[in-house]
Design goal:
Oligomer: single chain
Strand order of the largest sheet: 3-2-5-6
Helix content: under 10%
Radius of gyration: 12 Å
Strand content: over 45%
Shape: globular
Order of helices and strands: EEEEEEE
Length: 83
């Protein structure tokens, strides 16, 4: 799936954060690790609408947020998990 300007079916989110091996969950389902969606390859591809994102790593506080995805839009998320 290619996500970018002109895409009518999918949007996405990229992560610039540490730790890079933190697990990413979308709507309660494991999607991969932060490093998988760093923007250098493919973003985390999502259908349009609101999704709950959780980023989890041992020894860190879980990060939870909602993201509203629009078709063709890539949303960058930057930050670090807190201990």
């Amino acid at each position: 799936v290619v996500v970018g300007p002109g895409s009518t079916q999918y949007g996405g989110i990229t992560f610039e954060m540490t730790p890079y091996d933190a697990d990413v969950y979308v709507d309660g389902t494991h999607a991969g690790r932060v490093a998988d969606f760093d923007g250098s390859q493919q973003p985390l591809t999502l259908t349009p609408g609101t999704h709950q994102i959780q980023v989890v790593a041992p020894g860190y506080q879980t990060l939870s947020f909602d993201v509203s995805v629009q078709p063709g839009q890539i949303i960058p998320y930057r930050g670090d998990l807190q201990r």
